[in-house]
């Protein structure tokens, strides 16, 4: 049974339009799930709904199978780590971390042990008497994490916790978060719009678009096999190739000029089929060299740009425009005719 | 080289002269030995200061002023803090109206306001004198309380409140353990400002006070109707001293910038 389950949730800030509609998500105990998506797609809204800051207009939120939809924030033992850290400015690091324990009427000695242990876990020993204004961004972030962890939350929620830190610290902190999470085995929902961050630390990533989860899968699956056009574009499949499927034969898909295409996992597909492919995966070569009948087309270079590790071309072909990366030394010039090959295992059919 | 603004210099001088001149005269006169106000004084004496403490009317009205100010502070904070909190925390219909409504006692001339209170509270509803004075003072203190508290809430990050709730604090508890401690300086400054506003008030008090119940400034007014000795100057100097001390305290908690905002 899933630890948390969002069932057909609808959330709206005003009467007019719903930010989430018929939203579903379930997270297993101990799992680290990230919500990833463009700005304004409803990540924070989802997280705040789980925390209890937002109310669902419709639908149900289950925690361990119990209906938690109407349980107030302070009765859910969920830790929340804010982007702004939200430390209590008038309390020392020690009292910030001890805050939740004091509310739980833990005895003073036990509070002391727990606070010191958790401060050690986040490498903040010796900082107990500092005030938040006397800490660096990374230290504040660790206090915020320690403060949520020390109450042994049933669930840990992060809303872009690292976005205010510089790049080096972000990488260091995300590993720290993952390490602590795995050590304590606390179920975590993490929001970010940094792809690398989500992919690197999550068990599963949910790609969101306009209030809907388009795909929830392990990071490698999302990276290699996006299910929808949106997800494909989001994770860097910049080329979408529309084709028609006949549902039979060895090369059942045909591009609009009739070129047959062999695509892995497309057996039996009928009607319009869109296939996504990364710019890195299309092979580019001088035209005129021998090419097979399948998965290949001729084109003309429109634009060449230098990427550092290679060149990127915009190539105009009979079946559409493609973005292609190559590592080759000599770039093809503007207007030159080239040949593009699409490896069958790199083309991914998407909705 | 600095530019010289002769005209500006003169204007500044005149402003200071008009502002400080009367104060200098009062301070000087308060130390005069004669039985009437003179400036410059013909000697030096502290007897009028002594006399201040012998005029019974001053002593009783001082106690009433204190009581009105202190009770007024309690009441205006009980009303003002939740109002300021609601106005800065939430978006709701009629927010602009409520904001202006709570600030209006500052804009309406005190005389008009005092007369209105007299007409309704005393003449129509026969409210006894003391509660009448108190109500009047609470109403004129509230705008200050709301302004000071609102401005310190402006710097308050409400996600801190949510953090407290996620750690297990109820809404009410959060307000007391997280919100209040963080607007402490605003509360202190609000108390001082409200105290000054009440303690120095003449225009509302003049309508609301009556037989047996008078605030200190009203007693001073009554005193000068019958006596011309420097006692009134002496008590004015004491009054100024108290105000100066409180203003200095506000300056330390909020900064004088607050008054010019
Ligand atoms: N308090 C609010 N009142 C009205 N609309 C809101 C409110 N908060 C968010 N929205 C709207 O809801 C939508 C989703 O917002 P949300 O904050 O969940 O996005 P997000 O995915 O977290 O974006 P970001 O990556 O920029 O943080 C946005 O269109 C936003 O304008
Ligand atoms: Mg957000």
Would you give an account of this structure?
The complex is a heterodimer of chains A (351) and B (261). In chain A, helix 2 crosses helix 3 (108-121), helix 2 (93-103) runs parallel beside helix 4 and helix 3 crosses helix 4. Chain A has helices at residues 43-51, 93-103, 108-121, 137-149, 167-184, 195-201, 219-224, 229-234, and strands spanning 4-12, 18-27, 32-36, 58-63, 66-67, 78-81, 155-159, 188-192, 204-209, 212-217, 239-246, 253-254, 260-261, 270-277, 283-286, 296-306, 311-317, 320-326, 337-341, 348-350. Chain A is 24% helix and 33% strand. Chain A has 351 residues and is an alpha+beta fold. Chain A folds into 2 domains: 4-229, P-loop containing nucleotide triphosphate hydrolases (Rossmann fold); 236-350, OB fold (Dihydrolipoamide Acetyltransferase, E2P). Chain A contains 8 helices and 20 strands. The two termini of chain A are 29 Å apart. In chain A, the strands form 4 sheets. In chain A, strands 6-7-8-3-9-10 form a 6-stranded mixed beta sheet, sandwiched between helices. Chain A has a 5-stranded antiparallel beta sheet with strand order 13-12-11-14-20. With 261 residues, chain B is mostly helical. Chain B has one domain: Orthogonal Bundle (MetI-like fold), CATH 1.10.3720.10. In chain B, helix 6 packs antiparallel against helix 9 (184-199) and helix 9 (184-199) runs antiparallel to helix 12. Chain B is globular. The interface between A and B is medium-sized, with 25 and 18 residues. Magnesium ion (MG) binds at residues 43-44 of chain A.
Distinctive features:
heterodimer; A: 351 residues; alpha+beta; Rossmann fold; OB fold (Dihydrolipoamide Acetyltransferase, E2P); 2 domains; 6-stranded mixed beta sheet; 5-stranded antiparallel beta sheet; 8 helices; 24% helix; elongated; B: 261 residues; mainly alpha; MetI-like fold; 13 helices; binds adenosine-5'-triphosphate; binds magnesium ion
